[in-house]
Design brief:
heterotrimer, B: mainly alpha, Arc Repressor Mutant, subunit A, 2 domains, 5 helices, 2 strands, C: alpha+beta, 34% helix, elongated
Chain lengths: 300, 131, 634
């Protein structure tokens, strides 16, 4: 496999245990190069543990992770040369000034671009003399992002990057990330709760539920196969037509069902068979799909 | 230029492709005009540049866009229309959705057609004003 | 390296408050000199004292605090990911932080210390009386140690892992192991070796602590508990290796063979063929070992924890040795042990308490032991049952020289001599003679001898019946004298020729032998009991360094003339020198020192037993006086 084909991240059979609690359960996924990969999951689903192990910051109980083709636990030191990380909790020392942080990073990365950093910092409106601890949560994330991007990484990992950001900051963060991807083909791996934000930029999504990867596919395909169907009859007909349904509930006098293997043709046939009256099919947002897969009462 | 609805059933690249074709059809984009770069459009629409690239690739393959080395992407001198079969398929998709919506609100075919007329005119008029 | 320095620089950038504090403390001594109440004290003394105390105290406390926070604070506050998400190796992170901490401590120390030192240089030297370089070295080592210990402490205690219990247990085990390594060395009186071993162990500990952080971070990364696990594994494994090596080293040190001793002191064997061999062991610095060594067979028995001049002695038949075993090298008293002198025999405790200077002796048949303790109480013990048969308190206990021997197994005779050592001027001196009877359980005062003399000497004949008194004076007013006395009552029997009081002795047949250095060489001058006198010419030598009577009327004399030495075997009954052996001299560096403890009797060795002598190259030989056969020893 040549360089362009090795996945940016490959996780194989990773299990992470804390005592008896299983935080990550035999998770496997691959992040193609140059793609935007979004890992979704509720709080406590195991996303942060997975990310830490993927980055070689923590040892998984079993399984392994590779970044850019190399084992991330063994080769963390030189892999981090090409990986930018924006952590969920800002971990830079609070007393350090932004310019000192940049100077520190400049000494560590061979591809450091100080001008890029300064440009981004001023674009975010952050004074480089400010101490990191004095910045707002959103500004801290922006600084972290600027630092990560200035090192011209091949892969950027963002752990819940929009947490605590207001709408404006969220949009600008995604803009930066998108520009980076467009300019340099950087692979973007992010975990998030902000489903609306990633809906327009993710190539692939994975949903983590109770430590397991419940779903891992291209966003487009995912959205193509999920539909919400409202109709005024019993849901049995749907199952008879071999639709996989989840989240079936009463809606008015009829039924609302989420179908996860929707197919236009099959549905037309069903409707024309006249056992279903006034069926209304609508596409689902990523958020709605997520709730169907990983929400309460989902697990089917 | 145009809006993208991420929650729409149609994939984003399809929406971009359609949006571009609409702009050309309305005359907002004329043959030979420069087209925003993948990066610019991605930032504008806040979508994945890969998605934009995919749409552009399809448009280029179908002869709607032309790429000139070193100069960028332009509207082709003779932007081709979609093949009839493709056009019909697209219309069928959109119309079946529209018909379904109409039926569900209890509208008659006549009302549905009237609304369709109005929307078409409005779009053409609006765009003329912009241009 | 650049990454390491980048981390160091980063850490240093947040230390400004620490430096400010140091500067404030630096100013303090000078400010204090202005305080009214302290005006009376010398200004310079205030500055140097407070400056030094402040510098050392602040630096050491700072070192520990920095050590605790260096890594474990980032682990606690989940900020290690700041470093781990960058291309920084665990080594760079660790050593960068250590360097930053050391620079901080050094700088703070300098800031506080240097001004006060400069202001009062001579006063500093006077107040503290330490070598500046040495003092700085000690403070530096202490600071580094505290820094690293702080780190270990911080990682282990703040991880909230139950592993800490195991760590404490292993710490206890380590301390015990170190004691186990050091103690046997001290029991061999190896002060220098012990110091070197201690410094080596300390150095090994420092290296382990210096490396532990890099290992810990590489294995534990951002996980607090995994850091603790990795740290514990590394430290205890490394320490175990060091201690095993140390234990093996100590084991090797404390198990030398007699042949490993350098220029050992060897006693002359008594009736048997066993003697003591004592000396510094080869390649073991100042570790000393004592063996009971069989001259005939080369077998040896190690005797631990004593020095050659402690209370010890061989039984008359040479089959048993008794020695004082101290519980540790500093103790003043211990237990008497009896060691049968044959291979494989184990030393047996007697439950008899003795001090280093206790007098003790065996009865000739080996069944009894006589001991005088520090309080002047004399006791006769039955060896087999370890029971005290009879005890009595002797009148004088201090500033005396006491000597004892068993006249018969049931009769112990005690000589108490005052003063114990020669004086500069003649003083009133005395020897009091007592006998302790086992059957009557009574202590009887049987005789006393008084003289005004500088040095009073007593030798008793081999059969215990007669004694030779020597009063040594060498000025015009009092002349040196010698007398043959009754060994029990101290009654003077006859005067002895006083021509040579250094070389005079009682022979087995009761005659007095004097060795005279005359123009044509040494001559043995014999005065029999019946008064007859004979002379035997010996040979040329400048100095006598060895004299020993053998059974069967033989006398062995050893002399040196510059570098040449000769041993003469004299048959004094028939009046001739029967053997001359060149190049041999006394093997015991204590010269005539009697290893038979406190027995005043002139020992008579078995003529068939070899003597221990050494040649000019200090190699030891067992030499048969009758046949001249030589066997190399050790």
């Amino acid at each position: 496999m040549n360089q362009a084909e090795t996945p940016a991240i490959r996780i194989a059979g990773m299990t992470v245990r804390y005592g008896r609690r299983v935080a990550v359960d035999a998770a496997s996924l691959e992040v193609p190069r140059g793609s935007v990969y979004a890992l979704l999951g509720r709080n406590g689903a195991g996303k942060s543990s997975l990310v830490r192990c993927a980055l070689g910051q923590q040892r998984a109980s079993s399984g392994n992770a590779q970044i850019l083709g190399e084992d991330s636990w063994k080769h963390r030191t030189h892999l981090m040369e090409r990986v930018g990380v924006v952590a969920e909790e800002a971990d830079a020392p609070p007393e350090m000034r932004v310019e000192q942080l940049a100077a520190f990073c400049a000494r560590l990365y061979s591809r450091w671009d100080q001008k890029a950093f300064d440009t981004r910092a001023s674009r975010f409106g952050i004074s480089t003399r400010a101490r990191f601890g004095e910045l707002s949560k959103g500004q801290k994330k922006q600084v972290s992002l600027a630092l990560a991007l200035a090192a011209a990484p091949d892969l950027i990992v963002l752990d819940d990057p929009t947490l605590g950001l207001d709408v404006v900051a969220r949009k600008s963060l995604f803009e930066e990330v998108i520009a980076e991807l467009a300019d340099r083909g950087t692979t973007i791996f992010l975990t998030t709760h902000d489903l609306a934000g990633v809906e327009s930029i993710a190539d692939r999504v994975a949903i983590m539920d109770g430590g397991r990867i419940a779903l891992d596919e291209e966003l487009e395909a995912l959205k193509a196969r999920f539909r919400r169907i409202r109709f005024s009859a019993q849901p049995l007909a749907l199952e008879a037509a071999s639709f996989r349904t989840t989240l079936v509930k009463r809606w008015g006098t009829g039924t609302e069902a989420v179908v996860s293997n929707y197919d236009d043709l099959a549905f037309e046939r069903l409707r024309s068979s006249a056992t279903i009256q006034s069926a209304d099919v609508s596409a689902m947002t990523l958020e709605e799909i997520f709730i169907a897969v990983a929400g309460e009462g989902a697990h089917s | 230029m145009f809006d993208i609805n991420p929650t729409d059933a149609a994939p984003i690249w399809r929406q971009i492709e359609e949006g571009m074709r609409r702009m050309i059809a309305l005359g907002a984009l004329k043959p030979g005009d420069t087209v925003p770069s993948v990066r610019e459009l991605a930032q504008q629409l806040r979508v994945n540049p890969n998605t934009v690239a995919r749409a552009y690739q399809r448009l280029t393959e179908h002869g709607v866009f032309a790429v000139r080395r070193g100069e960028g992407t332009f509207v082709a001198d003779e932007p081709s229309q979609p093949k009839k079969s493709e056009r019909n398929e697209t219309l069928r998709d959109a119309s079946s959705r529209y018909a379904g919506t109409a039926i569900s609100v209890g509208a008659s075919l006549g009302d549905a057609v009237d609304e369709l007329n109005n929307s078409y005119d409005k779009l053409v008029r609006e765009h003329r004003r912009k241009v | 390296m650049t990454h390491t320095l980048a981390v160091a620089r980063r850490d240093l950038s947040e230390r400004t408050p620490v430096f400010v504090t140091a500067a404030a403390i630096a100013v303090m001594p000078f400010v204090l000199t202005l305080v009214r109440g302290l005006r009376g004290i010398n200004r310079l003394d205030i500055i140097t004292t407070i400056g030094t105390v402040g510098a050392v105290g602040f630096s050491l406390a700072l070192a520990f605090i920095l050590g605790v926070s260096m890594i474990s604070r980032d682990l606690m506050e989940k900020r290690m990911s700041f470093y781990l998400s960058k291309p920084l190796s665990a080594r760079a992170i660790w050593f960068g932080k250590v360097i930053a901490a050391l620079l901080t401590v050094t700088f703070c120390f300098a800031v506080i210390f240097v001004p006060s030192y400069l202001f009062g240089t001579t006063s500093w030297q006077r107040s503290w009386n330490v070598d500046l370089a040495g003092g700085l070295a000690v403070v530096s080592a202490a600071a580094l140690l505290l820094l690293l210990l702080g780190h270990v402490f911080g990682t282990m205690f703040r991880s909230k892992s139950p592993l800490i219990a195991l760590d404490l247990v292993l710490l206890g085990a380590t301390v015990l192991a170190v004691i186990g390594i050091i103690r046997p060395l001290l029991e061999g009186f190896a002060g220098d070796l012990t110091k070197r071993v201690a410094i080596t162990l300390f150095g090994a500990l420092m290296l382990i602590l210096l490396a532990c952080g890099a290992w810990q971070l590489e294995k534990g990364r951002s996980d607090r508990r995994q850091n603790h696990v990795a740290l514990s594994r590394f430290i205890w494994t490394a320490l175990a290796i060091v201690l095993v090596i140390g234990g093996a080293f100590t084991w090797w040190v404390v198990h030398p063979a007699p042949s490993d001793l350098i220029e050992p002191e060897v006693s002359q064997p008594g009736q048997g063929s066993w003697s003591f061999v004592f000396g510094r062991a080869n390649n073991r610095m100042d570790y000393h070992a004592l063996f009971a060594y069989d001259i005939a067979s080369g077998e040896s028995l190690r005797i631990n924890g004593i020095r050659s001049w402690y209370s010890s002695g061989f039984s008359h038949d040479g089959s048993t040795v008794g020695y004082l075993k101290l519980p540790d090298y500093r103790a003043g008293e211990g237990e008497l042990y009896i060691q049968p002198l044959r291979a494989g025999a184990q030393p047996q405790p007697t439950q008899i308490t003795m001090t280093r200077n206790s007098e003790f002796t065996f009865s000739d048949d080996g069944s009894r032991i006589g001991v005088i303790d520090v309080n002047g109480i004399v006791t006769a013990y039955e060896l087999a049952s370890k029971k005290a048969l009879v005890s009595a308190k002797l009148p004088q206990a201090e500033h005396v020289r006491r000597r004892i021997f068993f006249v018969k197994p049931d009769l112990l005779r005690i000589y108490i001599q005052t003063p114990p050592y020669p004086s500069i001027k003649p003083v009133a001196s005395s020897i009091e003679i007592y006998e302790l009877d086992v059957r009557t359980r009574a202590l009887a005062h049987t005789g006393s001898y008084h003289a005004e003399t500088r040095a009073l000497g007593l030798t008793v004949s081999g059969d215990g019946s007669r004694g030779l008194i020597i009063e040594r004076d060498d000025n015009e007013n009092i002349k040196s004298q010698a007398f043959v006395i009754d060994a029990r009552t101290a009654q003077v029997i006859a005067p002895a020729p006083a021509a040579s009081l250094t070389h005079i002795t009682l022979l087995a047949d009761g005659s007095v032998a004097v060795l005279l250095n005359e123009a044509n060489g040494w001559t043995l001058d014999l005065h029999a009991i019946d008064g007859t006198a004979r002379r035997i010419p010996i040979g040329r030598m400048t100095q006598l360094n060895f004299a020993r009577e053998l059974s069967g009327g033989m006398l062995v004399l050893g002399g040196v003339e510059k570098k040449d030495s000769t041993i003469f075997v004299v048959d004094y009954v028939h009046g001739s020198v029967v053997r001359r052996e060149p190049d041999l001299r006394s093997g015991s560096f204590y010269g005539y020192q009697q290893w038979y403890g406190t027995d005043p009797r002139r020992s008579i060795a078995d003529a068939s037993q070899p003597l221990v002598l050494h040649d000019d190259a200090k190699a030891l030989y067992a030499w048969q006086p009758l046949t001249g056969a030589k066997k190399k020893l050790l």
